Amino acid sequence: MSDHATDLATEAFIAHRNLLFTVAYEMLGSAADAEDVLQETWLRWVDVDLAQVRDQRAYLVRITTRQSLNRLRAMKRRKEAYVGPWLPEPLLTAPDVAQDVELAESVSMALMLVLETLSPTERAVFVLREVFEVGYDEIAAAVDKSPAAVRQIAHRARRHVDARRPRKVVSPGETRAALESFQRAFETGDLQGLLDVLAPEVVLMSDGGGVKQAALRPVVGAEKVVRMFVGGAGKVQGRLTIDPTLVNGGPALFVRLDGEIDGIMAARVEDARITGLYYVRNPEKLSRVESETPLTLR
Fold this sequence. Notes:
Layout: H1 3-15, H2 17-28, H3 31-45, H4 56-80, H5 95-99, H6 101-106, H7 109-115, H8 120-131, H9 136-143, H10 147-164, H11 172-188, H12 191-197, E1 198-207, E2 219-220, H13 222-235, E3 240-247, E4 250-257, E5 260-270, E6 273-280, H14 283-286
Parallel strand pairs: 1-6
Antiparallel strand pairs: 1-2, 3-4, 4-5, 5-6
């Protein structure tokens, strides 16, 4: 490829990079794997004859989707051997992502966990169609299916997700208020305050990956969750600090122990109460958080 052609390829890739990264991340639930997919996409893109490409965005999305599908199938074996609950790698997001309601919901921990229950092809079709409004013909080319088959897969995936996703999307302000109440009650040891902000059926999922201490199964019920947090805090040796942040399109909490990152906690909120808490402690999933640039709008 000539220098001029390489420059054109680079310009197109950079122009669509956020979109490609978000497609890969939503399919994989791992920012590190999404970055690897982008590298693989770039290596294939620079070998393409751009004169034969009618729609560069569609072509890049196709490459990214295929590479993500390959990696997603390989990741299945890793997840089957994973110690305890598997949560998506936290992704720092800029404020403008939170303002895009559909994009913010699509990268939320709650919906990402729902996407985990889809097959690789269903997940690819759902992400491309429902989040990025890619046409059926383009999706068909990306997943090697007919447009008719893609329509059926899209319908099946949408029905599956709709049955499991939160009943309604709440504003960032509502989530922030609930997390602030949770943080205030935790820091002051206000047990009743914790019980008040947690829904009775709240579910806590903590991901230590077998490296950091975490519950090996989801903890269900406000009283059990409070006991776990209070008991865990009592065993902490050092200074625990909690700061607000933006993760996966919404407010979250950055937890540090003696200044070092201990974990990130995201929440699912309904009717002003927390119904889901997602606490990522696995160091492998936190290594990029403080150094990465927050994701902006696609």
